[in-house]
Each structure stands twice: as C-alpha cells, then as structure tokens.
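To whoever is on call:

I kicked off a structure prediction for a single chain this morning and the downstream step that reads the tokens threw a length-mismatch warning. I double-checked the sequence; it's 690 residues and nothing unusual in it as far as I can see. Pasting both halves so you can look.
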Amino acid sequence: MKKLFNNYIISLFVVVIILFLLVPLPAGLLDAMFIINISLALIILLITMNIGEALEFSIFPSLLLVTTLFRLGLNISSTRLILTKGGQAGKVIEAFGSFVIQGNIVVGIIIFLIIVLMQFIVITKGAERVSEVAARFTLDAMPGKQMAIDADLSAGLITEQEARTRRYKIQKEADFYGAMDGATKIVKGDAIMSIIITSINFIAGMIIGIVQGTMEIGEVLQVYSIATIGDGLVSQLPALLISTATGMIVTRAVSEGSLNKDVITQFLAQPQALMLAGVILAVFGFIPNTPHLQLFIIAGGLILLSRRSAAQIRKNEELALAAEAQAQEQEAAAAAPSETDYYKDVNNVYSLLNVEPIEMDFGYSLIPMVDEASGGKLISRIVIFRRQYAQDMGFVIPSVRLRDSASLGTNQYVIKIKDEEVARGEILVDYYLALEPPNPAGEIDGIETIEPAYGIPSRWILPENKEMAEIYGYTVIDPLSVMMTHLSETIKKHTYELLSRTETLQLIETIKKTSPELVDEAFPNVISYAGFQKILSNLLKEGVPIKDLGTILECIIETSTGTHDLDLITENIRASLKRTITRRFCVDGQLRVITLDAEVERAIISSLTKNDQGVYLALNPDLLQKLVSQLSDCAKKFSGLSQSPIILTSHIIRVYLARLLEQFFPDMYVLSFNEIVNTVQIQAIGNITM
C-alpha cells in the first residue's frame, strides 16, 4: 500500500487540483490550501538558491506547471466564495487584505498593482528571455561538447562509462533548457490570469453587493476590496516566489556552488570594492539632513569587512608563495649534474645510441606542464592514457621519453617514434584553445590556428574570454589537454610500429599464465614468434584490439592446417573477433558505412595480382581515380557523425582494398561483412559505383 501511495501521490494531487475547478471548498479547507501553496513556493525558491547546477532540480519545469495549476484552482475556489458568500473567503484572504489596505482602499490597490506589475514586467520577462537564450546556446554547443568528450575518451582521460554519463548529462541539459523555454510562458500566463481574476472579483463583487445585497455602497466597497486584494495577494505571493525561482534556476549557468556560497566568496574576493563603498557612505554621512547614525554604522561595517577580507587574501598568498619556494628548494637539491660533467664518462656516451620507442621534446615555455615539481600533470595524464589503452586494445604502450630541447621554439613540441619525428605542434600556455562550432552564435577574439590532433579550425583565446566562447558554442580546451590529445592520437596511429619482439614475448608470457597448453601447442610448431608478431601488428594497424589472445591463438592453430599465408590467417582472426570489432566501431547499435557496388567488387577481384611476395591489388588508374573521388565525397558525410568513415565489403578483397586506400584515406577503415555481428543495424550512407 505504501509503495502504491508513493507511486501515485503526485498523480492524485493533480487530479485533486482539477477538482478544485469544479467542487466548492469550505473556507477552512481553502485557508489550509493557501498555506500549503505558500509553503510549497517557498520551498521551491530555497531549493533553487542552494543547488549547484540546474540539473540538480530537473523536475522544475513539470513542477512549475503543477504549482501554477494548483494556484489557479485555488483562485477559482476563492472567487466562488467571494461572489457567493458576500466577500467572506476565509481568514487568510481577510488577513492579507486588511494588512495591505490598512483602512485605505486606494493605497491597497496601488500596492497590489505594483506587486503584480513587478512580477510580470521585471522577473517574468527577464526569466523568459534568459530561458530562450540558454536553450538556444545549449543546443548550439552540443556538437562541440560531444567532440570534447570523444577527445577525452581518445586521450584516456575518461572511461567509456564516464563518457556515456557525460553524454547523458549533455542530453538532459538540452532537454531541461528546452523545457524551461516553454515553462516560462506558463509563468507569464499565470501573471496575466491573476490580473484578470482580481478584476473579475472586484467588479463582479461590487455588482453583486450593490444589486443583490443589502449593504451600503461604502460597505460593499470596503468588504469586496479587502476580499479581492487579499485573494490577489495570497495568489501573487507564491506566484512571485515561483517566478523568482524560475529566474534563479535559468541563471545558474556559470555557478560553481550554491548561490549563498558563490555570493559570499565572490564579494569577499574584492576587498577594494567593499572599502570604497564604505568610504563613500561615510562621506554621505557628513551631508546635512542625512541619517548620520545609519550611514556611519553601515560604512564602518563595510570597512571592517574589507580589512578582514584583504588580510585573509594576503595570508592565502603567503601560504602559496611559501609552498612554491619549498618546491623550488626541493628541485634545486635534487638537481642533476651538468650535461658536460655527465658525458665526461665515456660509458655514458653509449646511452646516446639507444633508440627510444616514443619521445616528446618540448620548448622552454612548455617545461612547467611536464615537470611534476612545478605542478605539471602531463606524466600523470600519460599514465592514465596507458592504462585505458591497455584495457581497450590489449597492448601496453612503452614509456614515453620526455625532455626539453633548445632547438625548438619556446611554444613548440615534437613527437618522435623510434627517434624519427612523426608529429609537431605549438601551444600557448597562458591561453585556451576554442574549437570553432559549425555555426557559432558570435565571434570571439583570438589567434587563429588548427587543432593539431584532428585538424579542426580553432582560436587561442585569453582566459577571460573562456565563458563567452562557451556561450557562443565553442568547445574550450586547456593547453595540456590539447597536447595530450595530440600525443594519444599519434601513438594510436603508430601502435603497430611499437610492437617489438620483446613486447610480443611479454604478451605470450601473459597468456601462458592462464592457458599454457594453448601456447605450447602454437609455438613454435604452428607459428613462429615473428609470424605471431606480424599478425598482431596487422590487427593493431587497423585498430583491432588484441586483448583476446586466447581466441587469436586458437584461430591461428585452426587456420594454419590449411594455409600459412599470414594475411589469410589475419582475416580469419578478424572474423573470430567479430564481437570485438563490432564493439570497437559500432555506435549505439548502428554502423554507418560506405558500400561497394557489385560491379565495383568484381572489378577489384579481377585486378588481384600474385607474385613472389604475395597477392596485391593492381587497379586500373581510371577506376582508382573514380574510386578515390567517390570515397572522398562519401567521407564528408561522416564529418557530423561520431564515428570514423567505414567501407563495408566482402572478405575476399578487404585486406587488399585496405592497403590500397590507406595512402589516400589514413583515417578510413575497411571492414568485411564477416566481421559484423548480426544484431547490428547497418546503414549505408554512400555507395561506390562504376
């Protein structure tokens, strides 16, 4: 019974509200309902002032509709009592009316009108405009936010679960502000309806009192003005609180905590403003005929508060300087000997002959981002990326050698694979990178550049322009994330080169701990270590995880009885890993692909040529040009999607087509029908024809 009550209490409440429109309520029950209405509005206002972000109170649009309907239902019930009971509609209405009128009907009417117009013109109008702008900017910023999530996921900064949570939050935020855009129209309509109902109560009450009653005109005016203004105020008070809550919740876009905390923190962070305000009030206190005592008391309070705030800020700065000085002393104590002294030992020169798998060289100004003693976070970010990549792909990335280089510009960095440069970038440490959205809501000042990892047009902007850029729909990224994303994407493209014989043997030893019989059967009788390394390298080169080594070895053993062609063995392994490949490339149960016409596939099959080195694809130049041209047009359709371009073809030509196209489209993947599970919905967004 309790569970049933909890599930339907709100639905029951809405039904009761609708009954208020039809069923007369006694004055005592109406008083209780008015008190509940005021309490509910007060609770809602306090909640909106204490939340950190709007989504913490995501039911607000629906609650706004329910409370407005509740208030209108009570208005109709009170109108019925006012017009049928000679202005007697309960003690709450009488108390509010008598308190405001204070024996003067004109003053009471003026105060009531001021309250209604203040709510309608100032609060409701402002909240409506803010809701419209927030809804539009939130929707415009969604693609950029999605790209930022994908970049963090690719860099290993977040897990797949965290990415899904952030995507869900973005969707909920867009839905919330879209609902608030419509919900503010309800507040506006409620304010208009309150004026109409109040006018009806007063005019109709006067007519009934004069025509049908026995009271004098003065008495009728007194009775119905108290009832009308009291009823209007009883409805307008909660309406004013709800309108204020509406404005409060739609203006929480850049808050970091509750309103109370933010106001106190940000006011106390400006002691000069408090001091200046106190001095100005003190000067006013010397002007004749001003309230000297009140001005001097408030001025003294502001000056005292300013001095205490300034003292606290100085104390925090001294603590920060002391911590920085201590860190510098520790760094100096741990400083290594000079380079010249180090290489005086000839044995140390041999260390220069080592080739590091991954290196990253930095210009001078980028060193603080790397040096942990100076608060640099790059090393910890690399550790997070290595862990995430190992979980996703089954391969442990070697250590990254980080060092400063005098040959680079102060803001430049270079990424090397096996001592050869493969990528280069330049970042501005004291700026933020703003990725341009397709349709920005406004122009932001900055230094034009290209995002190094994905090639997106961007701007380097000052920190003070960050909030405005986000409002305009730009995706704003800090310099460390820009550099880390570039490093992670570069490593992913060259992972297959990093798979050395040592790494291969380490992987074999890992699987041997759980499946020793499988390893003994496979090596060296079925396949050599070099052949196994080549197969794993082929898989990594095309983005296929090698985490399931057991399935890979089983497939090698089964396939090797019929062929020793490593390409054919690799294709059979890919078919065995269809669930892994589907998870790797599928998005939300859908796979958007480019397909090949049957005539094109036949032409490709007829172009397969075999020599002593194996089978390769020798396409006619005209056909190759048509194929590349059509694929280039189809690839553009993937620009607005959250997946890379994919070609879906038969397993016979997949490997040869992939090798041919990698020189033209390095970010395009070629999959076969055998590598996709049956439950996936395949959507062809392009077709290549002759």
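Update from on-call: the warning came from a stale cache, not from the record. Cleared it. Sanity check on the structure: The mean pLDDT is 79.
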